[in-house]
């Protein structure tokens, strides 16, 4: 994924991103339960990044739709690709204005 928001988040929170994604890979069926600690660490890291804060403020509606989708489809997250792309498009616009 080569979008600006993902690159900024990866730079700022690399070890937490890796910890969360590794956990999700290890527990694909129960990641929403087993990876809560890693998710919270990643969330705290993202909350300290200025660009990520702006993305959260400006793209909250898109993110909420995506988050609702993955919550409803924990076993089939690929069903949420469209919602994810809408969120990423918004995040890219906001991040581009911040750099």
UniProtKB/TrEMBL annotation:
Gene3D superfamilies named in the record: 1.10.287.2900
GO biological process: cellular respiration
UniProt superkingdom: Eukaryota
Gene Ontology CC entries for this record: mitochondrial intermembrane space
Cited SUPFAM superfamilies: Non-heme 11 kDa protein of cytochrome bc1 complex (Ubiquinol-cytochrome c reductase)
Protein name: Coiled-coil-helix-coiled-coil-helix domain-containing protein 5
Source organism of the structure: Magallana gigas
Top-level taxonomy: Eukaryota, Metazoa, Spiralia, Lophotrochozoa, Mollusca
């Amino acid at each position: 994924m080569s979008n600006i928001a993902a690159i900024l988040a990866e730079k700022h929170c690399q070890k937490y991103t890796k910890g969360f994604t590794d956990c999700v890979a290890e527990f694909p069926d129960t990641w929403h339960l087993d990876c809560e600690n890693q998710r919270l660490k990643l969330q705290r890291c993202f909350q300290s990044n200025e660009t990520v804060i702006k993305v959260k403020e400006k793209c909250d509606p898109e993110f909420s739709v995506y988050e609702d989708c993955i919550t409803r489809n924990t076993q089939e997250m690929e069903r949420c690709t469209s919602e994810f792309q809408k969120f990423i498009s918004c995040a890219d616009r906001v991040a581009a204005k911040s750099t």
